Amino acid sequence: MATLNKMEKKKVLLMGKSGSGKSSMRNIIFSNYRAKDVRRLGATIDVEHSNIKFLGNLTLNLWDCGGQDAFTGTYLTTQKSHVFSNVGVLIYVFDVESRSFDRDLATYTSITNALAEFSPSADVFALVHKIDLVNPEFRVKVVANREAAIQEASGPFAKSLKVFGTSIWDQSLYKAWGSIVNSLIPNLDVMERYLWGLMGETKAEEITLFEKATFLAVMKVTSEIGKKNPYPDRDEKMSNIIKTFKASLAKFTGDTAGPDFCEKFCISAPKFALIIEELTKNTYVMVVLPPGEAEANCARLNIGIARKRFASMDVLSGQEHDEGQDEGSGGN
Amino acid sequence: DPDSKKLAPIERKPRLLLMGLKRYAKITGVRYLVEANEDKCRSGKSSISNVVFRKMPPQDTLFLPTTTAILKESMHTFMDFQVWDLPGQIDYLDPNFDPDSIFGGVGAMVWVLDAVDNYMEPIGRLTETILHLQDSYPFIKFTVFIHKIDSIADDSREDVIRDIMQRITDDLYDAGLENPPINYYGTSIYDHSIFEGFSRVMQGLVPQLPIFENLLNTIKDRCHFEKLYLYDVYSKVYIASDTTPIAGSAYELGSDFIDLIVDLSEVHGWHRGNTQDSKMKAQQIYIEECGFEA
Ligand SMILES: Nc1nc2c(ncn2[C@@H]2O[C@H](COP(=O)(O)OP(=O)(O)OP(=O)(O)O)[C@@H](O)[C@H]2O)c(=O)[nH]1
Ligand SMILES: Nc1nc2c(ncn2[C@@H]2O[C@H](COP(=O)(O)OP(=O)(O)O)[C@@H](O)[C@H]2O)c(=O)[nH]1
Ligand SMILES: [Mg+2]
């Protein structure tokens, strides 16, 4: 399987009917768009390709495929092998408001059949999108209903299929995309050991590693106390909170490429302390601690020391270096 | 009933009236999938008070039921005041209606005008109301929110706002009222404009405003800051700012920063049980090498 020192490129297809919200999601997750900014997007013509460097040696090759019928037609005919070969992940977006769900399912089935032909080992994610338009009481039920129908239409992917209800207006988007990128990144057990090491040196309750551009959580370690945090969805909550602020910063500075969140951020509250620092070129680390200035200072020193250790891992930094440091890396 | 005219203590707090016109009220039952434009004729008052004072996410206002009774709410943030949300279908100008119970002691009145809907009828109603109230309650300050401005294309927003202002001014002029005491703001619950609009309205209710402004001016000069805002953390309206002209979107960034801190504290500030001091310690925030200079 994936080795850590080899550059990897994974093809990700983003498909679904026109207007279902594909480009909106892409721009929020990978660029500094805010949910309220995406209304201005026009329909995607053909396919928009983007290469996203993710964790150093992993590049996501994202194909945002315009969903108008004419385009879908060519994906399934003349361009079939071009579009569907070498796919790592297919993300198929269903608009929850669609008035022709049966037709959407039929298109979806043709797409999954083509995928089965050219990339049988791909992972498939189906997103039931714009869930914000459904009365909160019914959201779970609506997603469950759609999930059953989508699964039936998934052919050979029915077993491994994952379905999420999503909306650009809340953290559900980050939950789904967190799960998607986690299916793409290679084995990170060395990194996990390093995080436990850092945990031992500080009084941390939880240490989470976020990818820098998307602020999606890629790994976390939690102490017994940290496990008492009443929010099981805190990773996607954090992604949402930080991304929203980053987008706001980008708007203020007029820097469309997007400023970094900030190198060091520390908040000392009555019940907790929290540090977010850049760890490597592509990651941020977040450390949650009990309150107290001494603990926070100690943690910050230890992060500084750990930074050197992490930098030697090319999965995070994307830097070339000698083989000797790749201890314990490899497949799973 | 003479007793009902006496005001309970709560009624004496500065009062902010939200008004707007509803052409017809539609009683909606449980909705499964919602059509966004089903509610076209509701101006957005309840959405506004829920977003600003209850932290409701703007997109959730789709599921708000129609207001049918006067809704009185006490707010205790930087000052105590009341927000009254008046439903559209009550005829306030009906002679049998006791206007003093509503308009006596009002600090500010906000008229929410739906910029998307046909606004001719609401404008007629608004000018009628202003003229009527001017005689008996000359101290009321009027603010018009030209609301749902997000639904209008960027390049025609200015035109719509100007058109509405012109029509109201002309109507009032024809009725003999020159230079009416009205402020106008284009607002939307989907961005910061609603908070900025409210900030200005609230400042009209703060008696100490000049003192705050002097204080902020002094700090600004001594520390060579560019611009200062005094925020109410809960609602994110600003109570005062220094008196240099407002430029850029620093207010917006400031309120997003408050969101960041409040949201982080919500996720991680759960009760640990055995920490000995839950007393409020001074909260400290450090930011180093951030992508912006404030
Ligand atoms: N209510 C709601 N609207 C959304 C959501 N996501 C996207 N939208 C809206 O859906 C519309 C269409 O979004 P796009 O992202 O351009 O759709 P697309 O799938 O890329 O369409 P094509 O490029 O034509 O295939 C936009 O106006 C968005 O504002 C969501 O989660 N909730
Ligand atoms: N596009 C847009 N819609 C809004 C805005 N404010 C409110 N709405 C919508 O207008 C509808 C009616 O709002 P509501 O507050 O119930 O109106 P009320 O009857 O005047 O209290 C709701 O569906 C809101 O989601 C806004 O700023 N922009
Ligand atoms: Mg698109």
UniProtKB/TrEMBL annotation, chain A:
Coiled coil feature spans: none
SUPFAM superfamilies for the chain: P-loop containing nucleoside triphosphate hydrolases
Matching Pfam families: Gtr1_RagA
Keyword Cell inner membrane listed: no
Gene3D superfamilies in the cross-refs: 3.30.450.190, P-loop containing nucleotide triphosphate hydrolases
InterPro entries attached to this UniProt entry: Gtr1_RagA (IPR006762), P-loop_NTPase (IPR027417)
One annotated Gene Ontology cellular component of this protein: fungal-type vacuole membrane
An example molecular function term from Gene Ontology annotations: GTPase activity
A GO biological process held by the record: positive regulation of TORC1 signaling
Superkingdom of the source species: Eukaryota
Keywords: GTP-binding, Nucleotide-binding
Role noted for this protein: GTPase involved in activation of the TORC1 signaling pathway, which promotes growth and represses autophagy in nutrient-rich conditions.
Similarity comment text for this entry: Belongs to the GTR/RAG GTP-binding protein family.
Subunit architecture: Component of the GSE complex.
Protein's name according to its UniProt entry: GTP-binding protein
The species this protein was found in: Lepraria neglecta
